[in-house]
Amino acid sequence: MQRVYLDNAATTAIRPEVVDEMANVMKNIYGNPSSTHVFGREAKALIELSRKNIAQRLNVSPAEIYFTSCGTESNNTIIRSCVNDLDVTRIITTDMEHKCVIESIKDLEVRGKAEVIRLNILKNGDVDYAQLEELVKDQSKKTLVSLMHANNEIGNLTDVKRISQLCQENNTLFHTDTVQTVGHYELDFKDLGIDFASCSAHKIHGPKGAGFLYAKKASHIKPLIAGGGQERGMRSGTENVYGIVGLSKAFDLAIDELDAHIAHIKEIKQYTIDQLQESIPGVAFNGLSANLDKSLYALLSIKLPFHDTLIGFELELAGIAVSQGSACSSGAAKVSLVMSTLYSDEEIDQMTPLRVSFSYETTKEEIDALIATLKKIAEKHQLQNA
Ligand code: PLP
After folding, report:
1. DSSP state, 290?
2. Cα 358 to Cα 38, 61, 182, 222, distances in angstroms
């Protein structure tokens, strides 16, 4: 059976060029980067070259990039340190963030360390910018705004530059979770004016277990993990040298081939939208997902016009892997926070959300397989309701 992978927002296939680069390091560079002898220095040099490369591509200083194990660790470190070390006592965020942001903020809230304000979400899935503008004017408490760049479930893009300007004008720190956008867009962190950001290698055809956090030089956050003082004291623990090299290589490939990848993936996304609209009457899209410029181009969040808690399983039987931002208010499957923020229980009971996410390798034939299976499922529901 043909296997179709349409879950690239969850993770991507590692690129062979990245594997080759990593294998070379695994085989030949085994010194501990903290050792002062030549074996250690060789490993250390690779880390610093990777850091310099990544920093250059984001137009920041290498001293502002700290390697971590993943996006989750990066976001946790930033958010917790803002409260623990930078006197932040108020966080403005949303219920639409990734779980690692939601849970670290909730933890600080229940411990009484920070007041948390969750912004209203508009029907189109965007944050309420007007509400944010009003809230940041209150400077009685040191505030962190934490809003993701691209939503990993519906794809809405946040106007990061607008928010960072607002935060700068109001003496407020700004963290943006860029896990879904680094390597998908040419980002200039300096120009964006953000204080903190995060990245995960496995979202850009790099290895699992490697990521970085960006912290503007002026923001003196402190480490989550204490020990031997690696990463200039920010993240102790012997470095994942081949992971870091793999991350840097994956980032290089992503940016060097970006224009071609964007063109291909946008075409695939538009094709998916057109085919769905032709094949499934009543199909719609969540948030701004169908807008190629206002949402992450590599992700499409589909709103099927029937309720089917088994759809993930049915697609799996046809060899198709997608992600189901599950929406079952009555059965065993849990409604995702994003869907329950966007829709009422009644609306959720009449729909099925489905997230398909593409890569530069996705083909129209794979989309055809998805559409054919979804069409059959939709027809089954039409018959049941007839
Ligand atoms: N933030 C966003 C927006 C994500 O999509 C993800 C992963 O799905 C993460 C953070 C967590 O990244 P990692 O899997 O590297 O911990």
Report:
1. T
2. 43, 32, 15, 36
Give the pairing type, strands 65-68 and 320-321.
unpaired
Phi-psi region of 183 (alpha: psi -120 to 50; beta: other; left: phi over 0): left
As to burial, measured by CB atoms within 10 angstroms (0-12 exposed, 13-18 middle, 19+ buried), residue 260 is exposed
Q: What long-range pairs does 273-280 form, CB within 8 A, spacing at least 24?
A: 273/300, 275/367, 275/368, 275/371, 276/302, 276/371, 276/374, 279/371, 279/374, 279/375, 279/378, 280/304, 280/305, 280/374, 280/375, 280/378
Tokens 């680069």 correspond to: 21
Compute, in angstroms, the gap from residue 179 CA to the centroid of ligand 1.
6
The verdict on pTM exceeding 0.70 is: yes
Low-confidence stretches of the chain (pLDDT < 70) are: 325-333
CA of 385 to the centre of ligand 1 (A): 38
| Shortest-distance atom of ligand 1 to CA 72 | 16
Per-residue pLDDT reduced to its tens digit, 227-278: 888 888 888 899 999 999 999 999 999 999 999 999 999 999 999 999 999 9
